């Protein structure tokens, strides 16, 4: 059976090892914002948990020895001190673990925000690119449409010019025909007199017809 001194020496060794692992755990906490090493963290926490469990077992052995041997006051003080150191080490570990978890949560939040911003930027770039393509297509369509309108306007103007030229040509032809007819009538004797008589007779017939119509209307009113 191990003696109090032997068990206590084992506890002292484990306490030194725990101090060393807590120092490494603290350094890991300080460097966590730069780089996260999951394997390193798992190794440190495993060593600390094993050390805590082993020290609790050894302290229980010292308690049982005290029950049978009635340890001296100095040994009881040593036992009490080992218990206090174990409690302190567990508190330090809990504080470091909580701080590390907060840093992880912060890093995860920053990563999530950064990812959302990148996704938003990517979607914005895609929309901007699509809008540029749509704008380019719109400009091309408008150019084609304007070109079509210009062609229609040009065709209408050309048709109007042709119509104007044809009217001017027909007008010139009519003027020429009228001039030739006048010249012909002037060269033929008696034609002018005959036309004058025809016009006079036409006016007379028109007057007679108007008189008859007026008389009929009067008869309808008074008869």
Radius of gyration: 61 Å
Residue fraction in strands: under 5%
Helix content: over 70%
Mean pLDDT: 81
Number of strands: 0
Q: Give the CA-based shape.
A: rod-shaped
Main beta sheet strand tally, sense and closure: none
Secondary-structure class: mainly alpha
Q: Which H/E pattern describes the elements? A: HHHH
Low-confidence stretches: none
Q: Report the span from N to C terminus.
A: 165 Å
Number of helices: 4
Function: Involved in transport from the ER to the Golgi apparatus as well as in intra-Golgi transport. It belongs to a super-family of proteins called t-SNAREs or soluble NSF (N-ethylmaleimide-sensitive factor) attachment protein receptor.
InterPro entries: Golgi_SNAP_su1
Protein name: Golgi SNAP receptor complex member 1
Transmembrane segments: 206-222
How would you characterize this protein structure?
The protein is an all-alpha fold. It contains four helices and no strands. The chain has helices spanning 4-31, 38-69, 73-187, 191-222. Belongs to the GOSR1 family.
């Amino acid at each position: 059976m191990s003696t109090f001194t032997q068990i206590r020496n084992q506890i002292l060794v484990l306490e030194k090892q725990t101090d060393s692992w807590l120092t490494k755990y603290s350094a890991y906490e300080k460097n966590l914002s730069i780089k996260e090493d999951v394997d390193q963290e798992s190794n440190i926490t495993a060593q600390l948990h094993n050390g805590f469990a082993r020290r609790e077992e050894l302290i229980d052995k010292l308690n049982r020895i005290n029950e049978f041997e009635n340890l001296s006051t100095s040994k009881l003080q040593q036992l009490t001190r080992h218990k206090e150191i174990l409690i302190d080490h567990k508190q330090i570990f809990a504080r470091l673990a909580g701080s590390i978890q907060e840093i992880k949560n912060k890093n995860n939040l920053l990563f999530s925000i950064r990812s959302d911003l990148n996704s938003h930027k990517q979607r914005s770039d895609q929309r901007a690119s699509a809008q540029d393509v749509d704008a380019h297509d719109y400009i091309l369509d408008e150019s084609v449409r304007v070109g079509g309108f210009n062609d229609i306007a040009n065709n209408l103007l050309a048709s109007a010019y042709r119509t104007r030229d044809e009217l001017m040509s027909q007008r010139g032809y009519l003027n020429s025909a009228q001039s030739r007819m006048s010249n012909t009538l002037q060269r033929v004797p008696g034609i002018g007199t005959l036309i004058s008589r025809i016009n006079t007779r036409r006016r007379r017939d028109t007057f007679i017809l108007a008189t008859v119509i007026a008389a009929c209307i009067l008869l309808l009113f008074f008869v």
